[in-house]
């Protein structure tokens, strides 16, 4: 098995992947294996990894080599790191948390806000819905803060503080983050050891710390592993203005985009926690492109007033025999747009007397 892994790594390491926007010079396999073999000290959150134990070293080498093998993915880690890691690092420092925890976000989601798992985990820190809510995240049909970098990082910090207090080590806290605190406690009790490296845990959890360590080593010294990215190769830092707005009713995001002098996609990308095309009733703190905050409230209030007046003039009362397709055809608008304008649930029938909002083509939201 080990021979097969080394063979695959050898093949991939010599491929040219400059199409991904970075110079990734071929790595000499013998040199790479030697650098792994000669590594004597390694730590996670200040806790020593027992590399003198051959079984532990083998598990670590496997994860490191497999990570390096997936070169396009590593390039994307490195490209995204400058966009998101400075904010995570700052929040960890402010809360006196180990900096190594930032690598967990890369291992979990590759720094993708919409990353999801088959078990229902979501976002930068891969929270399950119940755990996210427990640590203060809003998760409903309108908002999913697991996708918000700042809210989810605050929740992750709270969760890690609780896990560290409970488990007594950062290594066990990270394992509990992956498999669940109760499950880890049960295994510790049955196996009569609190040493992560001696515990037989679910296979994903047995690999988890080593995946994080692999991320750490590559991000700290990418050139050593054949990833030579310049400043022009990495994605720019996330820049924004933060505003608070009051919505007395649902407001189209396209209206907020217009008040910001940008488009719908830019607002969605800056606020991945917002689901759908509307901002729900209530008070919201959102991000808008940097430099457009001045005058935003004036523009926003003017547009809301116009939207309200226009909305009142565009009410259609559903008649007997109508269906959504016939209504869309009658007003020469796509059916999908009609559904978005009115937040229609296709599982719920429409009835005569129901009211729909329909805009002419030149006033689509």
Write the layout of secondary structure elements.
Elements: H1 2-13, H2 29-37, E1 43-44, E2 47-48, H3 54-69, H4 71-94, H5 102-109, H6 129-134, H7 149-167, H8 170-179, H9 181-191, H10 203-220, E3 241-247, E4 251-252, H11 253-259, H12 264-270, E5 278-279, E6 282-288, H13 296-313, E7 315-317, H14 324-330, H15 335-341, E8 355-357
Antiparallel strand pairs: 1-2, 3-6, 4-5, 7-8
Helix pairs in contact: 1-3, 3-10, 4-7, 5-10, 7-8, 8-9, 8-10, 11-12, 11-13
Account of the protein in words:
The chain is mainly alpha-helical. Helices cover 49% and strands 8% of the residues. The protein contains 15 helices and eight strands. The chain has helices at residues 2-13, 29-37, 54-69, 71-94, 102-109, 129-134, 149-167, 170-179, 181-191, 203-220, 253-259, 264-270, 296-313, 324-330, 335-341; strands at residues 43-44, 47-48, 241-247, 251-252, 278-279, 282-288, 315-317, 355-357. The strands form four sheets. A two-stranded antiparallel sheet has the order 1-2. Strands 3-6 form a two-stranded antiparallel ribbon. A hairpin with a 2-residue loop joins strand 1 (43-44) and strand 2. It is elongated. The N and C termini lie far apart (57 Å).
């Amino acid at each position: 098995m080990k021979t097969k892994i080394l063979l695959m790594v050898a093949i991939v390491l010599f491929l040219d992947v400059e199409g991904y926007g970075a110079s990734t010079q071929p790595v000499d396999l013998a040199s790479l294996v030697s650098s792994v073999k000669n590594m004597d000290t390694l730590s996670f959150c200040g806790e020593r990894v027992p590399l003198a134990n051959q079984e532990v070293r083998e598990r670590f080498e496997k994860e490191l080599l497999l990570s390096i093998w997936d070169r396009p993915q590593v390039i994307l880690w490195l490209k995204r790191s400058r966009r998101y890691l400075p904010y995570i690092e700052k929040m960890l420092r402010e809360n006196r948390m180990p900096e190594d925890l930032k690598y967990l976000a890369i291992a979990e989601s590759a720094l993708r806000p919409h990353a999801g798992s088959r078990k229902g985990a979501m976002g930068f820190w891969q929270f399950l819905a119940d755990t996210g809510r427990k640590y203060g995240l809003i998760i409903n049909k309108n908002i999913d803060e697991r996708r918000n970098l700042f809210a989810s990082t605050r929740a992750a910090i709270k969760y890690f503080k609780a896990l560290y207090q409970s488990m007594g080590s950062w290594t066990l806290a990270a394992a509990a983050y992956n498999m669940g605190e109760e499950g880890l406690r049960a295994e510790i009790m049955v196996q009569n050891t609190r040493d992560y490296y001696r515990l037989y845990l679910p296979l994903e959890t047995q690999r988890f710390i080593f995946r994080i360590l692999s991320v750490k080593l590559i991000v700290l010294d990418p050139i050593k592993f054949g990833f030579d990215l310049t400043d022009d190769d990495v994605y720019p830092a996330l820049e924004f203005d933060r505003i608070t707005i009051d919505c007395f009713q649902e407001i189209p995001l396209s209206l907020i985009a217009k008040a910001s002098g940008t488009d719908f996609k830019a607002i969605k990308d800056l606020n991945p926690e917002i689901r759908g095309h509307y901002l729900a009733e209530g008070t919201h703190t959102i991000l808008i492109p940097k430099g457009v905050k001045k005058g935003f409230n004036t523009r926003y209030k003017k547009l809301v007033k116009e939207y309200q007046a226009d909305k009142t003039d565009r009410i259609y009362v559903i008649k007997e025999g109508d269906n959504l397709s016939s209504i869309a055809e009658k007003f020469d608008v796509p059916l999908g747009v009609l559904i978005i304008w009115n937040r229609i649930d296709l599982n719920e029938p429409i009835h005569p007397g129901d009211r729909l909002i329909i805009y002419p083509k030149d006033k689509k939201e």
